[in-house]
Amino acid sequence: MRVQEMLTYLAAALPRFTSPATRLLALQCALRADTSAYVRLPGGLLRGMRLCGRRELWEELEHAGWLRRTASRNPHVEAQLLDAAVLAQRPGRQVRARAAQWALRPATLAQPSGWTPAVRLTAVVLATYTSGEAGSTDMEVLARLCGHSPHQTEELLDRLVTSRSLTAWHYFRETDEVAWHLSPQARASRTAIQQ
Question: Would you say domain 2-104 falls under CATH 2.60.40?
């Protein structure tokens, strides 16, 4: 729930076509920020997310006026979030930190390590709307949270089917709803993670 709330906040706070990698970075910054909106991301975390050394992502967030880097010494990056809404986050920092960890590897939809940021972000968004073996949401909501057009989102859903994370997905044009089903492999990975 916290990740879904933060993705919704970022969809409103960041420019519409902010890159998926930048959105993943912003998600971690927002969830890991302290009560003064200060965040310190260790190099190991950035390497694990495959975002280490990607100055352009930080510059994109700075250009949007969302944060200001205060230090960038290997192996970590420090920043001050500039959006006042981050300061009003509830609940506390520990709950948000757990949500940040969950967003790295959502139990609902296991992510192979080689995925691009666009596919990883789509998987995180889908995981927040998945209950049991299936999920659904409006296509416009899904596309907005992923920072893509509906057409691009359809292509990313196809890639999740090709990677066997999803069995299938369907777009109901008359209601603008997208529905998906987890693959048996994704369900098995989810069960293993939960145990």
Answer: no
